[in-house]
Amino acid sequence: MRPVRVMKVFVTRRIPPEGSAALSRAADCEVEQWDSDEPIPREDLEQGVAGAHGLLCLLSDRIDKKLLDAAGANLKVISTMSVGVDHLALDEIKKRGIRVGYTPGVLTDATAELAVSLLLTTCRRLPEAIEEVKNGGWTSWKPLWMCGHGLSQSTVGIVGLGRIGQAIARRLKPFGVQRFLYTGRQPRPQEAAEFQAEFVSAPELAAASDFVVVACSLTLATRGLCNKHFFQCMKKTAVFINISRGEVVDQDDLYQALASGQIAAAGLDVTTPEPLPTNHPLLTLKNCVILPHIGSATYRTRNIMSVLAADNLLAGLRGEPMPSELKL
Questions:
Q1: Which of 5, 128, 150, 203 fits a 20 to 30 Å CA distance from 234?
Q2: 3-state class of 265 per DSSP?
Q3: Facing residues of 57 across strands?
Q4: Gap between the Cα atoms of 25 and 7, Å rounded
């Protein structure tokens, strides 16, 4: 009987228990893990990945040429526990013939739920209202006190009508949204039909929407898409929500738009950088709600993501089809 070839796997963080269990059951792998919930220091990452056949990483790990050089020629598979891949140097990875696994689909529902939660929290001014209860600002019922903006009869514009964008629209529709708009690389008539959504340019979407929800991937075309010009197109009563990637938004321009009353409010689950420094100007604004990138943060979703990331890694190492492989 031929001995089992043992391959080195490096995991850059503690991952949820179901994914960790899937890796520990693999007799053909020797798993090393950065045993912390905090990010691995760069020097330790470079040492840990040296000689590894497989790497399981998170979206906060920058996998660039220097790290790939540190890994060496053994590295055959990178599995990221994320749907986004903007932290991976894909051109360099492709050049080296390394396979990439990722976790699309499984976090769609959780992220869409968070987007709707953030939208409602922002447009109905819930953090402000909670603070008023705590600080004694709640004195009596007043006709216009703590008024916000409602979804009924509104127009919602979605930047990126992919899986998550569609899931957001599906959840918003029962609130009585009157009209859906969307923008992206190209029209998606089949996907848009469910919501009778109209394909428009980004400036048109900004100008016509009461709520703008950004759910696109970070690409060269979308980096900095939501800038001064975009916000100038928006209504003064409009609410801006971003659950995609921080770099899609020019945060200085967003601050000016919020501080000057150019738009009504913003809710962000993603920022640049992450974490956002506690002295950042956006954190001084009452009309800006910022969350710490928790779109997929349900126990069930994170466990499923970890299992898919582990299964992708193991399948790649064994030369088998991955459940979710990124085609390079």
A1: 128
A2: strand
A3: 80
A4: 13
Looking from the CA of 125 toward its CB, the CA atoms found within 13 Å total 16
What is the distance between the terminal CA atoms of the chain, rounded to a whole angstrom? 37
Residue among 79, 36, 76 nearest 59 (CA): 79
Query: If residue 279 lies in a helix (H) or strand (E), which one and from where to where?
Result: none
**Which sequence positions are flagged as catalytic?**
293
Beta bridge partners of 80: 57
- Tokens matching residue 185: 């690389």
Residue 124 pLDDT > 60: yes
Mean pLDDT of the chain: 96
Per-residue pLDDT reduced to its tens digit, 230-285: 999 999 999 999 999 999 999 999 999 999 999 999 999 999 999 999 999 999 99
Helix 108-123 crosses helix 299-317 at what angle (to 10 degrees)?
150
Q: Which residue has the tokens 């976090």?
A: 107
Instruction: Report strand pairing: 211-214 vs 325-326.
Output: unpaired
What is the mean pLDDT of the segment spanning 135-139?
Answer: 96
Cα angle for residues 146, 156, 225 (degrees, 5° grid) = 100
pTM metric for this prediction: 0.91
